[in-house]
Amino acid sequence: MAGRPGGEPAVLHGLRSLSIVLPARDEAANIAAVVAAGLREIHLRQIPGEVLVVDDGSEDATPRILRALVAGDERVRVLRLPARGYGAAVAAGLAEARFEHIFCTDADQQFDLRELVRLERHCMAHDVVVGFRAMRADPLHRRAYGWAWNQSINTAFGVRLRDVDCAFKLLHRRVVDRLGGPVGWSEGAFVSGELLVRALAAGFSVREVPVSHFPRPAGRASGADPRVIGRAVVDFARFYGTFTTSPRSPPA
Where in the chain are the domains? Predict the structure, then answer.
């Protein structure tokens, strides 16, 4: 079908049902477009599915927009949390998702959901398929932070991952069930690294796939906030102190 990234087919029939999980905080300018993109992906595949938005205590118009979206399509669900953090929103969405495969991405329009097809190609052979940002569209200081963070996780946990924080992940329901819910995970930005390290340690196969990355069109990014970074470092240290299983590296 025309219009898919890289000329790839729109539907591969790799997914039999799909939950799209969108953690969001103060994304009034972006959320409607991302939800619509998620619904299009489900419709194209003609499979049972849902778009689950986890609202992490938004204080702008996001809740009002979400109420209208829920009223307009029964496949849209909203889980409202007090402001607890990105990791808490991701974990709550994974635990609440209803379908066989779970696709988790951000609600800031920095990814093209049509590229889900790139992950879908590998979902039958691998338990977790994650994107890595082939050309990261972030300021230099954020790219530097990201490189250092990625190297720290690889070194500390003995894994080889190109982009632990890329918010473009497709995983089978059994991964979440096996990893425990996920109860007690990081409530901050370390959640992405923790998910992959736990999955590898449990013996699940992980495949990385290049995806596009775009500048945020609206809203405010919080990834470089010193409080966010500090919380992630504390969670990293806490998890490292309790992590005793040596994970294997993902396949090339």
Answer: 15-242
